[in-house]
Amino acid sequence: MLRPITVTGLNENIAWLQSLANGGLDRAVENGLTDWADPVLEQCIAETPFDTGSLRSTERVDLEERRENGHVAIAFEAGGEPGTGPWKTINSPGKSGQLARDYVDYAADVHDDIGKYSHPIHQGLVGTYDCEGKDDFIVGPIYRNEGTLGAAISKRVQEAIS
């Protein structure tokens, strides 16, 4: 004789699995990327050559919403209109004696060849000064922290499935 089996919580488990399938895992990965990227961005900003603060104020992280093939990407960016990132520029003459620019079109040049802009020691309108930065101010912190990216994503995925 067969005995009846009672399953409890089946509806809740089905709903949980559907939530994972309907973007729950994607959001977990996105949150993990953001958890990892925010402190890396702070390091990028701290290593960026500084005069008026315009370049630092354009640094930001953008989550690129590309869903084909399940890929999620994150982009570290610099350049454009000052004030687009979390670091705010000060509207006063920099160490060079120059005012902040309205548009930063030199981010890649400074990043790739700091010597082109006479950094880190810069000759400005008010004399020689140290801009307290370095080249590769974006890729340097990314490379130094890439080993922790998997753990940040795993933590958020674990939270989503537990």
What is the gyration radius calculated from CA atoms? 23 Å
Determine the N-to-C terminus distance: 37 Å
Strand order of the largest sheet: 1-2
Which of globular, elongated, flat, extended, rod-shaped describes the shape? elongated
Number of domains: 1
Describe the main β-sheet briefly: 2 strands, antiparallel
Q: Could you spell the SSE succession in H and E letters?
A: HEEHEEHH
SS-derived structural category? alpha+beta
Helix content: 25-40%
Our estimate of the beta-strand percent is: 5-15%
The counted number of beta strands is 4
Q: For the residues shown, what is the average pLDDT?
A: 78
**Low-confidence spans:** 118-129
What is the count of DSSP helices, taking H or I runs of 4+ residues? 4
Keywords:
162 residues; alpha+beta; two-stranded antiparallel ribbon
In short:
With 162 residues, this protein is of the alpha+beta class.
Description:
- The chain is of the alpha+beta class.
- The chain has one domain (11-161).
- It has helices at 10-47, 107-112, 139-145, 149-161, and strands at residues 60-64, 73-77, 121-124, 127-130.
- The strands form 2 sheets. Strands 1-2 form a two-stranded antiparallel sheet. Strands 3-4 form a two-stranded antiparallel ribbon.
- β1 (60-64) and β2 (73-77) form a beta hairpin.
- The protein starts with 9 loop residues before the first helix and ends with a helix.
- Mean pLDDT is 78; it is low at 118-129.
